[in-house]
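Bumping with the actual sequence this time:
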Amino acid sequence: MGMEDHKLRVFCTVAETGSFSKASEIIHLTQPAVSLQIQALEELYETKLFDRTSSSVLLTPSGEILYKFAKEILTLYSQAEKDIGEITGLVKGSISIGASTTIGNYLLPLVISDFKTENPKIKIHLLVGNTKRVVDLLNSGNLDIGIVEGEIKKYKIISEKLISDEMMLIVPAEHLWAKKKDISMLDIIKEPFIFREEGSGTRQIIEKYLNKRGITTQKMNISTILGSTEAIKEAVARGIGMSIVSKWTVRKELKAGELKAILFKEGRMLRDFSLIFNKNTVTSYAVEEFLNYLRQYSYSKLIN
């Protein structure tokens, strides 16, 4: 990766988002820095590349031409890196992964550390954010792959199921229900319940499960709304209420006997963790290695 393709990447990001401010957020550059990169390209080609109106930034006819070639050039750079990596057999390079909260905080750190022992030369950048942010970064070419909860239906994105996640009810170890294997949703709705904030992937899956069984969240006794799984686990352990979380997030607490996880009589509450890629990018040799590793990894050993 040289200076030239960095400029092209900035240019493509502005073109795709139609905004200097959005582009600067995505590539972690200040807005003046983004403007400077574009200015440098405009001076190089001695033409305006964007028409800046009050509401949006549009490509000029020259900009359209450069955009078409820039995409091809960036693809060729990746292809060159990949092919060279294959003949030298040197798996190096860096991988940028975006992951939604549960996966990024509880699952990937374990998998990445195992991968790194086998491939010490590969640099890994992990960005944890909500699914929407991961998709935006993937679309603008700033991530190689994303791993998110749930399905993504966007035309540029390919989604592939990695593993399934199970959601379980958690109660303190000394709770009356702690010995039970499963419990009915109708019993749960009477008890003080701790929920995640609106828009959380975890909350959406719980609501979907309840709605399918004719239970609205209005019927629940929601005592507290907390913004993170860590806060929820702490509150449950202290007896403030019960909650439903991914089995991945309570691995340590279940092993230590601080919390108990209970299944639902109405059936399992499952969701998929999916790998997502941008249809238009060539994956590097390092990324291919990591993907194969992810697909073959035995995740069950982390839980049991």
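The tokens above came from a reply further down the thread. The radius of gyration is 23 Å.
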